[in-house]
Amino acid sequence: MVGLSQGYDNIVVRHEQDDANKFSVWYFKSEQLLAVDAVNNTKAYVLGTKLIKSGQCIDKDKLAKPEVECKPANLLRQ
């Protein structure tokens, strides 16, 4: 887990297409990303760390779609 989920009011659960054992739970307070639980998913852990530190806003709808690759260019709100 990266970050602290205390005070969250919304979660997004993301399952990866390439591996049924990989998933992540993203915790938000309004639009602010607070924490990420990444299970067997190093990419989500690293990305979550970067996004929490930068404070950038994520498109939650895209995040929830496993067909959208988990990388900043695809997930940042425009």
Automatic annotation (TrEMBL):
Domain Reductase C-terminal: start-end pairs: 1-71
Species of provenance: Alteromonas aestuariivivens
UniProt-listed InterPro entries: FAD/NAD-linked_Rdtase_dimer_sf, Reductase_C
Protein's name in the database: Reductase C-terminal domain-containing protein
